[in-house]
Write a structure and sequence with these properties.
The complex is a heterodimer of chains A (292) and B (334). Chain A is mostly helical and 292 residues long. Chain A has a two-stranded antiparallel ribbon. Chain A is 76% helix and 1% strand. Chain B is α+β, with helices and mostly antiparallel strands and 334 residues long. Chain B is 26% helix and 32% strand. Chain B is built from nine helices and 18 strands. In chain B, helix 2 runs parallel beside helix 4. The longest helix of chain B has 18 residues. The two termini of chain B are 37 Å apart. The chains are: A mainly alpha (292), B alpha+beta (334). Chains A and B meet through helix 9 and helix 10 of A and strand 6 and helix 2 of B.
Chain lengths: 292, 334
């Protein structure tokens, strides 16, 4: 039948795109898996032309048993979790605020999005040098103004500082998505709740928050994907010191600093597994919201 | 228990006055319908009574108590919205129970009242569904249920049937009238549909541009419209309005005659004309007849048996006792 023909024709025509995308994804993945089972130390003379030694799971066990592995997983989860909490909570509040009719609403909204356009490296440098510098930073001046001892943010409160910088970058994204969601809330529902005797807080918890649950789900899912791989912020601020070495950063150090490609690839595979575990958990928790 | 009095109530948005000072008395247990063309301020008036909009001047008394500054929740009124405004993430049971939970009633009392409301509205089988899984009529009933459980002094309906299809609308119209008879609570109902107004109301308030044109029982409005606007608005099909020479014969600026008060004859009569479009409803037939009496074709009602072809000649004669006369200001001449 015609439908059968057109269906196979459609498959044929989609094939190049599918193959390209699949190759794009599969080739690096296969290479990572391949290297993770090899001893590959370019500085010690290992190279693809001369052939690499098969080492089995040695890279995996070395990566896992290194003293920096578990702290790095912990740092990753801490930073991702912290940024998610801050961006979602503040995002909801900001969205409600921006939904109010105010003078110059359009300009305020554009200003709110601005941090999202600043490159991570740049924003991290700005934060590091202009705000968090213990001698010349804005915070240091503020602290001294109130007679307090300036905090050396990036060494004494390093994880918090990273969370703050990354939250600042991602808050606009969360706000924007939540704002569009809040604007789609039927105003009659709020009025009905008002007539039903719901206080402002009850209206927020019973009507607004449930209405936002789907948008919050989307914000959490998308942000998690990107936050698991944050790198530039750590690279330009602490360089992975003071407990801010995330899994991504640890892999970078293994490959670039230690010039051990095999070990780094094994770490990469662990990162894939961690990302999938987190994704499954998130899907379970928030997936229920998407079903509705 | 549920009398509402508006005294010099006024509403303006910025420089635009939507409702100039207006007085209205609604007695306990009455079914009052606000009717008027879209944009006439009827919904705004309802929202002023509900407290969802602040008045720009005047006082609203509910049960003799000044309620002008009282927040909506404490006025003891319940409202059914045009979009129903059900909470989509809550089951029907939770939707209906919401006002009671907000009032912090104990669970046994909540269950009792929700059960009773579901019983009245035939919703018992649907209590655990979500609004999204219900049909339009059922959603409408849930919205009414949410209003009933509060046992309010008065119900406010804001065009509640406009989202339903024609058949369902007739059914819900009956149900709401039935409910009013059973609960004997004051109801204020806003609609642009004069059929709904005529069939349901004890008292109709006809509004135009925020001004009350006439208040009265449906038949009063139908038989003795106070002015040209009410005459043209109430009744379907519309009253025939004739200006010019024919009106001057009756010492009026305009005369009005309802379609059922025009006699049709093929042999003799006052006004000669030709039949245009005829609308057959089965029981009745409406003929649009172009006569020499007015530029506009006149509508005449005849029994369903009468068949007149397009272009055939007829004579129309108004029954003099049913002729409405209006002066140059559009007001009725008694």
């Amino acid at each position: 039948m015609a439908t059968q023909h057109s269906r196979s024709a459609a498959r044929l025509m989609m094939a190049p795109a599918v193959i390209l995308l699949l190759g794009w994804m599969l080739v690096p993945l296969t290479m990572t898996l391949y290297f993770s089972f090899k001893k590959y130390l370019p500085m010690r003379g290992d190279s693809l032309e001369r052939g690499l030694d098969w080492v089995g799971f040695e890279n995996y066990s070395r990566f896992l048993n290194s003293s920096s592995f578990w702290p790095s997983v912990q740092a990753t989860l801490l930073i991702v979790g912290g940024v998610l909490v801050i961006t979602v909570v503040l995002g909801v509040l900001l969205a409600i605020l921006l939904d109010q009719p105010i003078w110059g609403q359009g300009i305020v909204r554009i200003l709110i999005i601005a941090p999202f356009f600043v490159m991570p490296t740049v924003s991290a440098l700005v934060w590091k040098n202009m705000f968090m510098d213990p001698v010349n930073g804005m915070f240091a001046h503020l602290w001294r103004f109130f007679g307090a001892e300036p905090v050396s943010w990036l060494s004494d409160a390093s994880v918090q500082s990273i969370i703050m910088i990354v939250s600042w970058q991602w808050l606009p994204f969360a706000t924007l998505i939540l704002l569009t969601a809040i604007q789609s809330l039927d105003s009659e529902q709020i009025e009905a709740a008002e007539m039903d005797g719901a206080s402002v807080l009850s209206r927020f918890f019973y009507i607004v928050l449930p209405h936002l649950s789907r948008a919050i789900t989307i914000v959490i899912l998308i942000q998690t994907i990107f936050l698991l791989s944050i790198f530039a912020e750590i690279f330009v601020t602490t360089g992975g010191a003071f407990g801010t070495r995330t899994l991504t950063y640890l892999i970078f150090q293994r490959v670039v600093d230690s010039q051990n490609i095999g070990l780094g690839s094994a770490g990469g595979v662990y990162a894939i597994i961690l990302a999938n575990i987190v994704a499954i958990f998130l899907m379970r928790i928030v997936g229920k919201n998407l079903d509705r | 228990m549920g009398s509402i009095v508006l005294e010099k109530v006024k509403k303006s948005f910025g420089d635009v006055t939507v409702i100039p000072p207006l007085d209205l008395q609604i007695d306990d247990g009455e079914f009052v319908v606000f009717v008027g063309p879209s944009g006439c301020g009827k919904s705004t008036l309802l929202r002023l009574i509900a407290g969802l909009e602040d008045v720009s001047g005047g006082t609203i008394r509910i049960d003799g108590r000044d309620a002008t500054e009282i927040p909506p929740a404490r006025r003891g009124l319940a409202m059914v919205f045009q979009s129903y405004a059900l909470y989509p993430h809550m089951s029907v049971r939770k939707n209906i129970a919401f006002p009671l939970r907000m009032a912090k009633l104990d669970q046994a009392e909540i269950d009792r009242r929700v059960g009773a409301a579901a019983d009245i509205l035939n919703l018992t089988a649907y209590l655990d569904r979500r609004p999204g899984q219900l049909s339009g009529g059922q959603r409408q009933r849930v919205a009414i249920g949410r209003a009933i459980v509060r046992e309010p002094a008065a119900f406010l309906f804001d065009e509640p049937l406009s989202n339903l299809d024609a058949a369902l609308r007739v059914g819900m119209r009956l149900e709401i009238s039935e409910l009013h008879k059973r609960l004997a609570t004051t109801m204020i109902y806003v609609t642009h549909d004069q059929v709904e107004a005529m069939t349901m109301a004890d008292k109709i308030v006809v509004l135009q541009a925020g001004v009350i044109e006439q208040v009265g029982s449906p038949l009063e409005l139908y038989q003795r419209p106070r002015n040209v606007f009410v005459a043209g608005f109430i009744g379907s099909p519309r009253m025939n309005l004739i200006e010019g020479a024919e009106a001057r014969k009756h010492d009026a600026a305009a005369i009005g005659i309802r379609p059922e008060h025009l006699e049709i004859s093929q042999t003799e009569g006052l006004w000669k004309g030709t039949v245009g479009v005829s609308e057959h409803l089965g029981s009745d037939t409406f003929f649009h007849v172009q006569t020499n009496a007015s530029a506009q074709p006149l509508t005449a009602r005849a029994s369903g048996e009468l068949a007149l072809g397009y272009g055939s000649e007829v004579y129309l004669t108004p029954r003099p006792e049913h002729l409405h006369r209006f002066d140059e200001n559009g007001l009725r001449i008694a």
